[in-house]
Design brief:
about 350 residues, Nucleotidyltransferase, domain 5, five-stranded mixed β-sheet, about 40% helix, binds 5'-O-[(R)-(carboxyoxy)(hydroxy)phosphoryl]adenosine, binds zinc ion
Length: about 350
């Protein structure tokens, strides 16, 4: 099974990683397309696919050479099969399928969100199930109860924008470019978070869902009425916006942790790189007696190490997917279901995946 090559191309990062025999990360290469998309103020799906096609060979070759191995050494290959942009996903999964077919290797198609969910545990033999996870990225904001590998229940999610989108769209309205999360994080460090009262979506509503569209509207209204904030006012506005997002995330996470009596708490995804979110979650963890699990910075945003880790856990319990496994752009987190093969393609004679019973 090892070395295992993992490929991630769900959005605008072309990434490859190699896992060693103990499931340790031997290499992780991420080629970002941010510069290609920045001109357009967001990810252009068609451009993303073309950039993946151009980059993937070099990224895989570098991951292999960084790990000190070659294609001939590989024991298994995995790629993200969803959720994400269909054209982007197709580049990575097809590349993995080509390799698996040519070298007669087992193939695994991995859920990108499961990668984020388990990213804090890359390098450790087993995730500490059960735990509550806040998955916060550019496309998703979900509260998940993870009871075991493939046994996930989404108990809260955003009704509109994701937390990362709230950062990115806010930054765009404030003229800070794309993507905006990192810039808001940096400017906020010089700002006063109490300066502007911005809405905490769904804070007073029952349940565990989030909403960030009202916050976006509040930023838009502020800019319409007062113009784009400048200088120290810009720092104060960014800090207030960041605080509103972090508050909303923290409030529902604390409520869910109490509801399900969870003390192992995972905070993961691109937004988990935010310095204020990390500090505030640590404060609450100390108050509530949580053990907080966060990925190292390089595994917060999209990467193939987290995909390789999930693939290694699944391969070690005998899972294999058909060479004709299709991409699934709308794939969600939930209890395991076998992947659907491409229509009309050859089916394996056996089941395409071992599907565990829900416990
Ligand atoms: O997980 P990720 O790389 O891609 C998706 O799967 O969506 O997350 C990207 C998101 C973007 O919205 C980006 O602005 C946000 O993560 N992000 C941050 C920070 N670093 C990345 N948001 C706030 N503060 C940061 N430091
Ligand atoms: Zn992601």
């Amino acid at each position: 099974m090892f070395p295992l090559l993992a490929i991630e191309t769900s959005c605008d990062e072309t990434a490859a990683a190699v896992m060693g025999p103990e499931g340790q990360l031997l290499s992780s290469v991420v080629h970002s397309q941010i510069d290609d998309h920045a001109l357009f103020g967001g990810v252009v799906p068609e451009l993303a696919s073309r950039c993946h096609v151009e980059a993937i060979r070099g990224v895989v070759d570098r991951a292999l050479s960084d790990a000190g191995c070659s294609i001939e050494d590989l024991g298994c290959v995995a790629a993200t099969r969803g959720p994400g942009l269909v054209g982007s996903l197709l580049v990575g999964l097809s590349y993995a399928q080509g390799l698996a077919a040519a070298r007669d290797l087992p193939l695994l198609g991995i859920n990108h969100l499961e990668g984020h969910l388990l990213a804090p545990f890359v390098g450790s033999p087993e995730p500490p199930f059960p735990f509550l996870a806040l998955v916060v990225s550019g496309g998703h904001t979900e509260l998940v109860i993870a009871r075991g590998l493939g046994d996930y229940e989404v108990v809260g999610q955003t009704r509109d924008d994701a937390a990362g989108e709230a950062f990115d769209k806010g930054a765009r309205l404030l003229g800070l470019g794309y993507p905006g999360g990192v810039v808001i994080d940096r400017l906020s460090q010089q700002g006063d978070a109490a300066c502007y009262a911005l809405p905490r979506g769904m804070a007073k509503r029952p349940g565990f869902d989030f909403s960030f569209s009202g916050l976006k509207t509040a930023v838009w209204k502020h800019v319409q009425a007062n113009g784009v904030p400048q200088g120290s006012d810009q720092n104060d506005f960014c800090a207030s916006l960041q605080e509103a997002i972090v508050d909303a995330l923290l409030l529902k996470t604390r409520k869910a942790a109490r509801e399900w009596a969870m003390s192992d708490i995972v905070v993961t995804g691109g937004v988990a790189a935010n310095s204020r979110l990390r500090a505030r979650f640590q404060e609450v963890a100390d108050e509530e007696g949580w053990t907080l699990h966060r990925p190292v910075m390089s595994l917060c945003t999209d990467n193939a190490g987290m995909i390789g880790y999930v693939a290694a856990l699944r391969a070690s319990r005998g899972e294999r997917h058909s060479l004709s496994t299709a991409v699934c752009p709308g794939l969600a987190l939930g209890p395991d279901k076998p992947p659907t093969p491409l229509p009309g393609a050859l089916l394996e004679s056996g089941p395409s995946a071992e599907v565990p019973e829900r416990g």
